[in-house]
Amino acid sequence: MNRPPVLGIPDGPYLEQASEEALRVLDGLGATRVSLFEDIERLNAAHRRLLSFEMARHHARWFPRFADRYRPRTAAAIRDGLTVANDDAAQIRAGRVNVRARIHEAMDVSRVDAWVCPAASGPAPEGLESTGDPSMQLPWTHAGLPVVTLPWGRAANGLPLGLQIVARFMDDERLLAWAAQLEGSAPPA
């Protein structure tokens, strides 16, 4: 594979989740802007609801006895997950295929091979308390798509920025080849 990929930027409310500084990773890529994820708030809520459901089910044996030993955010997520009915979780899981189909359709219509977007809503957070806001990764994870993140320069505070490259479902090998091609044009880290 020698031809570089045709890159698309998922434009709209999804991209609006990122700071101006994080959006700098898109400069100079020659990517086409394509409207995608107009319903990102609903998608984010559904994914987080499914995640909390799965956490609650995984911790069902231990949480009732050891809830006081969990970190507050984890305990809150588990408690939220306990409110999600099995049927609701099944419906959210089934909807993941529809999200993937919408992404693929947008790629077909716009003739995009891969999506590029900021890996996070801003620069990496300082310290070890948090890995940052996962909103920029969430729709790709929800759809089960392969993603590679490359370091892509630094923010004004000196912390790294990242560029995500996302391919179609089961297109992992092609994605890795494209990531290797793009890596050579990354700004200094």
Can you walk through the features of this model?
This protein is of the alpha/beta class and 189 residues long. The protein has a single domain, classed as Amidase signature (AS) domain (Amidase signature (AS) enzymes, Alpha-Beta Complex), CATH 3.90.1300. The chain contains 7 helices and 5 strands, in the order E-H-E-H-H-H-H-E-H-E-E-H. The model has no long low-confidence stretch (mean pLDDT 94).
CATH class: Alpha Beta
Q: Helical region count?
A: 7
Question: How many discrete structural domains?
Answer: 1
CATH architecture: Alpha-Beta Complex
Radius of gyration: 18 Å
Tell the overall outline.
globular
Parts with pLDDT < 50 across at least 5 consecutive residues: none
Give the N-to-C terminal Cα separation. 27 Å
Let me know the CATH homologous superfamily: Amidase signature (AS) domain
What does the oligomeric state look like here? single chain
Major β-sheet strand ordering: 2-1-3-5-4
Q: Helix content range of the residues, please? A: 40-55%
Percentage of residues in strands: 15-25%
